[in-house]
From TrEMBL:
This is FHA domain-containing protein. Gene3D superfamilies: 2.60.200.20. Keywords: Membrane, Transmembrane, Transmembrane helix. It comes from Pseudomaricurvus hydrocarbonicus. The lineage of its organism: Bacteria, Pseudomonadati, Pseudomonadota, Gammaproteobacteria, Cellvibrionales. The chain crosses the membrane at residues 259-280.
């Protein structure tokens, strides 16, 4: 997965987890930016075959990738995009979000990236162990709303492993669509707490390896050409089809007898003489 961040770092990077991610000045976009140079729906980030594309929405101020105006363009880590007058950086999962010399910029080993609803793209860092997640403001990771219990889940790091323990929640905790009470999560696993879905990020995130493997195995090999043959093609249709029917050849017509020819000439002559006689008689 890739992240998008304002170039001026006005807020934390946002993970692109939706297959169709909208950016614009309207509040109903995934990323709403209050800026006069942006259209209400300015551009879309589209995920196709594990690749991220920027698509402009026919805007007047345009969409730019590395200062080149584009209609649709694949994005890569390190690219700079500009929508109107607002600039963003595209980061990969291993890119620091700010100055690497700052202690706050050191990315922890584990985090949860929201994949659904209004939280989509937000990253929740697991900065202490054990950490609690729930709707209570006393939790280390607080997610307001009635779908979570006050203290829903405990996350504990033990020897570089992330241990999950459900805290008796009403709606349950699901790891890769299996309800759990206690479990060990791996990087790339999917965590669901009622309507909230999260992608688990950890050391050597499996999603990066899977994306690389898919892109490598997806390269087509050389196309083998069929050998050219000069033999006549054989019909593969059923015997009753027109392709396999033997059309009988027309037999040659027998020659006409001479007396038939003579009789025809005689009849024609008689008819002609009769017509001439009638014509003369009429005058």
């Amino acid at each position: 997965m890739l992240k998008i961040q304002f170039k001026d770092k006005r807020q934390d990077p946002i993970w692109i987890v939706e297959r169709r991610y909208t950016i614009g000045s309207s509040g109903d976009n995934h990323l709403a930016v209050s800026d006069a140079s942006l259209s209400p729906l300015h551009a879309r980030l589209l995920t196709k075959d594990n690749k991220l594309f920027l698509k402009d929405n026919n805007t007047q101020t345009g969409s730019y990738v590395n200062e080149r105006r584009v209609t649709e363009k694949q994005l890569l880590p390190g690219d700079t995009i500009r929508l109107g007058q607002v600039e963003f950086n595209i980061l990969d999962s291993r890119s620091p979000s700010s100055d690497s010399t700052s202690p706050q910029s050191i990315r922890p080993h584990w985090s949860l990236v929201a994949k659904s609803g209004s939280l989509s793209g937000r990253e929740f860092l697991i900065t202490s162990t054990p950490s609690t997640l729930g709707r209570s403001s006393q939790c280390d990771i607080c997610i307001p709303g009635s779908h979570l219990s006050r203290q829903h889940l405990q996350l504990t790091l033990i020897e570089q492993e992330l241990h999950l323990r459900d805290l008796g929640s009403v709606n349950g905790t699901y790891l890769n669509d299996q309800r759990i009470v206690e479990a060990i999560a791996k990087p790339g696993d999917q965590l669901r707490l009622d309507v909230h879905c999260f992608h688990i990020i950890g050391p050597g995130d499996a999603s990066d390896n899977q994306r690389t493997a898919r892109s490598c195995t997806g390269v087509p090999g050389p196309v083998k050409r069929k050998a050219v043959t000069t033999a006549p093609k054989q019909w593969k249709t059923k015997p009753t089809s027109p392709g396999n029917r033997i059309t009988p050849e027309l037999e040659a017509a027998a020659p006409m007898p001479k007396w038939v020819s003579s009789l025809s000439v005689l009849l024609c002559g008689t008819l002609l003489a009769t017509l001439i006689y009638l014509f003369v008689l009429g005058h």
